[in-house]
């Protein structure tokens, strides 16, 4: 029987059973599919982070929501019998003040579970992932893109960035080779086992060839270029482009390596 480390789900993936202090607003996650609710979320959050463009607000929000995707992937690779149901209908979106910047958390309103079969588990995982993205993630991204009038590709890029970073962290913390291989095999099911139609795209967005460049501070190490710009450069303040930004040219990275 599966056991859930709810403190870890909250710390790493922003899933919670609680309401935070200094809450600004909360809405049912299913309301993200409603134009008025999505525009209210983006408008409120955009003012708080002082975004110059709505596209930046959208990118930041979906980066938070990527935690829900990460939580599902984490639970699947653990191999538990039960997996939390993270459908839109089971969650609420909570925006709250915490330190200098506002944060999002996703409250689990109803504890329901998917029971994994003993046989044909990989097939079951493929079907679960297909349904999860097709019904719960893709419609949110499409609603978000429509509300700010931007292409869905950069929004998918934020989820891909987050998921690859998570997988790298999971692999680095793997206790043995068996766990390492299980993490890889479950991510492969997401990359190559889910049809592109589940994402509303011509290609599965996770099935990419990553580009690696010289690490900015550690000789003989490489770092991966992000799939999409996080758009922090569109916030008020001197953020600029990060070292891993796909918009940067190699000469810009060379300058950053020398000058810090």
What is the secondary structure topology, with strand pairs?
Layout: H1 6-13, E1 15-16, E2 23-28, H2 35-49, H3 54-78, E3 82-84, E4 91-98, E5 101-108, E6 113-115, H4 121-148, H5 152-172, H6 177-193, E7 212-214, E8 222-224, H7 250-259
Parallel strand pairs: 1-5
Antiparallel strand pairs: 2-4, 3-6, 4-5, 7-8
Helix pairs in contact: 2-3, 2-4, 3-4, 3-5, 3-6, 4-6, 5-6
Can you offer a commentary on this structure?
The chain has 260 residues and is an alpha+beta fold. 48% of the residues lie in helices and 14% in strands. It has 7 helices and 8 strands; from the N terminus they run αββααββββαααββα. The chain has helices spanning 6-13, 35-49, 54-78, 121-148, 152-172, 177-193, 250-259; strands at residues 15-16, 23-28, 82-84, 91-98, 101-108, 113-115, 212-214, 222-224. A 4-stranded mixed beta sheet has the order 1-5-4-2, with helices on both faces. A hairpin with a 7-residue loop joins β7 and β8 (222-224). The radius of gyration is 19 Å and the shape is globular. The model has no long low-confidence stretch (mean pLDDT 93).
């Amino acid at each position: 029987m599966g056991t859930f480390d709810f403190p870890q789900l909250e710390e790493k993936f922003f899933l919670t059973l609680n309401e935070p202090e200094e809450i600004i607003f909360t809405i049912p996650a299913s309301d993200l599919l409603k134009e008025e609710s999505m525009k209210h979320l983006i408008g409120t959050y955009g003012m708080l982070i002082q975004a110059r463009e709505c596209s930046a607000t959208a990118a930041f929000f979906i980066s938070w929501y990527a935690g829900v995707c990460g939580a599902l992937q984490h639970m699947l690779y653990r191999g538990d019998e039960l997996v939390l149901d993270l459908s839109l209908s089971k969650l609420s979106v909570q925006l709250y003040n915490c330190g200098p910047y506002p944060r999002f958390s996703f409250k689990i309103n109803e504890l329901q579970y998917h029971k994994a079969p003993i046989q044909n588990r990989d097939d079951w995982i493929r079907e679960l992932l297909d349904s999860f993205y097709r019904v719960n993630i893709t419609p949110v991204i499409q609603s978000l893109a429509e509300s700010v009038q931007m292409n869905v590709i950069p929004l998918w890029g934020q989820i891909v960035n987050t998921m690859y970073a998570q997988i790298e962290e999971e692999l680095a913390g793997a206790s043995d080779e068996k766990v390492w291989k299980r993490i890889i095999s479950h991510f492969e099911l997401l990359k190559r086992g889910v049809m592109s139609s589940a994402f509303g795209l011509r290609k599965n967005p996770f099935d990419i060839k990553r580009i690696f460049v010289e690490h900015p501070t550690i000789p003989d190490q490489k770092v991966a270029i992000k799939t999409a710009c996080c758009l922090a450069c569109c916030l008020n303040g001197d953020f600029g482009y990060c070292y891993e930004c796909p918009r940067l040219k190699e000469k810009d990275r060379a300058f950053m390596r020398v000058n810090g």
